[in-house]
Amino acid sequence: xxxxxxxxxxxxxxxxxxxxxxxxxxxxxxxxxxxxxxxxxxxxxxxxxxxxxxxxxxxxxxxxxxxxxxxxxxxxxxxxxxxxxxxxxxxxxxxxxxxxxxxxxxxxxxxxxxxxxxxxxxxxxxxxxxxxxxxxxxxxxxxxxxxxxxxxxxxxxxxxxxxxxxxxxxxxxxxxxxxxxxxxxxxxxxxxxxxxxxxxxxxxxxxxxxxxxxxxxxxxxxxxxxxxxxxxxxxxxxxxxxxxxxxxxxxxxxxxxxxxxxxxxxxxxxxxxxxxxxxxxxxxxxxxxxxxxxxxxxxxxxxxxxxxxxxxxxxxxxxxxxxxxxxx
Length: 328
Ligand SMILES: [Zn+2]
Known about the structure:
Elements: H1 3-26, E1 35-39, E2 48-52, E3 55-59, H2 67-76, E4 84-87, H3 92-95, H4 98-104, E5 110-112, H5 120-131, E6 136-138, E7 144-148, E8 151-157, E9 173-178, E10 181-185, H6 191-199, E11 208-210, H7 222-228, E12 232-235, H8 248-256, E13 260-263, H9 264-267, E14 270-274, E15 279-283, E16 303-306, H10 307-322
Parallel strand pairs: 3-4, 4-5, 5-6, 10-11, 11-12, 12-13, 15-16
Antiparallel strand pairs: 1-2, 1-14, 2-3, 7-8, 8-9, 9-10, 14-15
Bound molecules: zinc ion (ZN).
């Protein structure tokens, strides 16, 4: 191959590389006309971003020190303002990082569980929202948050009077729906709230379940999982956490349901995108040694991709362009 030929091949590959990089930044999976739900890896805690059309909703923000990680992630996926921030309950692994978010990204409204509590992270968050004059509303059963003609978020719990069983049980439970696909986001509720949802006889079936309370043994009772029948389950959990989560009992129940299980401690950031009919799951795939392979719980119905594959391709092209390229 002569040098002119090599140069034109390099130019072509460089253009391809730039196009791929642009696609990976803007995220083809996050295209308009889709609902994309990002489960961020914030260690032991919750942080979920919903993108739908022009609407962006953030649910929780992990611990205090995760604030910059969350803001950086939001920026990387093109979210430079938030229509709504939901603080599902006052515990620091959910509200800690939200103060940094309020200070760095314009927020139009805040929804919280309305249950008074004086944890320092929660009071800091509330006084900041007040100081910044961001409207604050208490979330309760029955509220609907429209995201577009075919998309909405429904508040399923808590009831306005609460359960009186502590902060976790009174967490805000949301069901986001786009077309015929639903995401059930259980925050940290346990079996009492699950039973109340079952007793309400509301349609709970959802394609994607954010497993309650980091898959602790005090939630995800089998009858509840049978009602939800998730094809994809997401567990937000920190690697080597002090609580021993996720519970093996919950993992077994999800496996018995045939649900594909994704975990932020093993899979990193988990992104689930839907066009209203099917699902695509993308992970940033960090797989620590010695953990049970996720494939043991995988369902064949879900298309799965990984950021690592596109980066492997980019790395290969870079290697070819700037070293060892003469081998072709
Ligand atoms: Zn929690």
